Structure formats: C-alpha cells, structure tokens
Amino acid sequence: MESALLKSIIFNQQDIIQNEKIVPRDYFFEPNDNYILVGMRRAGKTTLMHKRVQDLVKGGVDWSQIIYINFEDERLRQMTVDDLNDITVVANELSNKKSYYFFDEIQNIDGWERFARRMADQHERVYITGSNSKMMSSEIISRLGGRYMMQYITPYNFDEYLTAKKIPHDQRALYTTSTLATIQAAAISYLHNGGLPESLKQINARNYLTNIYQDIYLGDIIKRNNVRNKKSLSLLINKIAQTVMHEISYTSLTKGVKNSGNPISTPISINYVEFAKEAFLLFDLKNFTSKFSERESTPKFYFLDNGILNLFLFQKDTALLENLVAITLYDHYKDNLYYLHSQKTGIDIDFYLPEEKTAIQVSWQIDEFSSEREINNLVKLSKNDSQINRFLIITKEQEKTIKKDGVKIEVIPLYKFLLNEY
C-alpha cells in the first residue's frame, strides 16, 4: 500500500474531524482501554470516534498522532490484511510520539482481528467500528484475546434526540407547560422517524431512511451473505414488519413468502432473519413461559429503528408505539427482556422483565375497548405470579393510576417512559 495514499486518507479525515460539530452522547470511554464500537449503519459510531479524536486533541495530543482510516474509502478496496501493517509504518513517519489508531468499518478486511490483536499486544491505543454483530461473537472475542472492550452503539435515545434538537428537557422543562408541549410533540416525531442521527438534519427524513435501509439491505445483508433470492428476502422483511406486536413462527413467515409466489424454505427463512439481525436491522424477544424449543421457533420481532420500520407501515401508530417501547427496553435489558403468552392461563403480556419483577403493556390509549386486554391481563398475571410487583401500561399521552382487584397499574405517557421519568 502506497505511503502517499495512506497519508492523503489520514490528512483528509483529520480535516473532516477538525471542523465537525458533534452532539454529545451518553457514552464513556476509559482512557487506557481499546474499544470496538458496533451497531447498525448510521447509528453514530463514526461520530463517536470523531468525538474521541477531538477530546484527545483538546487534551494535548497532536494531530500528527491521530491515525484515522475509513475502510469504506474506495481507494482502499484492494487492501488486504497483509497491507494493514503499512498503516503503522506511515504512523511512525508522521510522528515519533505515541499514535492513536481509529479503524472505521474494519470488518471489510478479512482477517482484521489478527492485526487488531497484535496492535493491542504491542500496547497501541486502538478504536474500531463495525456494522455487523458477528464482531461481538464469542469467536471474534476469543481471537482478540480480551484485548478490547465492546461498546454497542444505538441510534439516538430520546434524551439524546432532544439534545440534538436543542429542546430543553430538565426537570424545569418537564413542568413548564410550553416546553412540555414541545417535548411531547418531539416524542411523536421520534415515534415516526426514529433516532438515526443524520435523519434529524433532513427536510425529508423518509427519503433518507429509505436510502439507509437500501444500504443495510443491499450492503450488509445481500452482498455480505451472497444472498441469491433477493425477492424472497425483501418479502420476508416486509412480512416481519407487518407482524410487529405479534409472535410468529418461522414456518408462518415462510408460508407468507411462498403465498406471494416466491420459493423459500423454513431453514432459508431462519438464515435470512439471522442475516438481518447481524446487520442490526432486527432483534427478537422470546416467550418467557415457553419451552426452549418453542422460544426459539416462535419469537416476536422488532426493528432497531422506528424510522426504518415506518417505511413498511401505513397509519399503524400502535405498532410503532410498541416497537419504540421494545427498542427502549432492549437497549437497557438486552437478553433479560421477554414477552409472556400462556396458552394455559390465557395471559398475554407485551413485555416482561423478570429481574425487575415488572410487567408492561402498550396501548395507544386506555378506553373501554382496550381495558380488557391491557388491564385484565395484568390483573390476571398478578394473581398467577405474586413475585411481580410493578405493572405498567405505556400510552401515547395518558397518565394516571388504575386500581383493580387490589392491583395498582401505572399508566405512563410515552415521553415520560422514554426519559425514564416514571
């Protein structure tokens, strides 16, 4: 790899970072650790690395010590793992001080983890990003030998979203009528458009999100996994979007695609879903009451960004509301989040947090039509499981306390739930 080309890439990147204005986010990096940042495309991984560079320079590090390589640069398309050491050679040419290495989307280089481990073994300071969950797999972690901290990066949470939009949301703001109305309106915008940082800068967020979806779909799923049956994959993801809020088996998903006239088998459907999960497009929840085999075969699927899910829906705010609650809970609890559906008792609960002893329902509003499912299911659950001590219903904007049959149920408006103000 030519030294002049690498220097040009490094200097160009430094110019970009130097002039970038960055919205603060809720992430902290230990100064003496190496990191791998993973998450869906455009969630903000690169911007966080840029912020880390800015902080280092403010702390006295010279720009000549900053070695930033974006492996999606088309000038590096022929680069292989054998060329990676050329980067350290260039770093030594630029400065005789300790370098700080930033490798963006390094998973594009096959065998990158061997180079990354050697860099850590040589006590270099390294930051890496990637858009595939395989980078978090036990196999990759083993190859890295525990030399890196994993940091999962999500689209903006609602707190970050409000900060980016410069909307005050401290305690004073939450109790000021005019500001509260702005926060509530922002919650609905967040519900529809999601939290991908660049979407906030767009006049037409939907067009931007469509491009991002195509990037994930075409780049991170089809090309990376050599998917040949593109139409069936597209229909499968569309089918999953239509079934948000509902458990569905892989057999049913396969049947839905086949009914559209496209050949697909259940094993292929399972593979395609895994590809979408690896690209951080989807995640799933298991039924806490089911046996292991049933948990795996009949999950509930959700999208990791509401704006992308909304591309598939038409006037389905109830599905968007449940998906947003799922995202928020998943970001906090990951594999300790479930749903409950018992054929034996008839209990149907949207979200269950066993460690928190909390059951959560989601309803656009509480009225005479929704009370039977939302309230009665929570009451029934309390009679069947005395360990659960908190019962919540998340709504668009209602807030009250319901007491029925000795059970206290808290009705929480969306904005308070998103800001953890409940």
UniProtKB/TrEMBL annotation:
Domain DUF4143: 220-362
SUPFAM superfamilies named among the record's database cross-references: P-loop containing nucleoside triphosphate hydrolases
AAA domain sequence ranges: 35-162
Signal sequence bounds: none
Record InterPro entries: AAA_14 (IPR041682), DUF4143 (IPR025420), P-loop_NTPase (IPR027417)
Recorded superkingdom: Bacteria
Protein name: ATPase
Source species of the chain: Lactobacillus hamsteri DSM 5661 = JCM 6256
Lineage: Bacteria, Bacillati, Bacillota, Bacilli, Lactobacillales
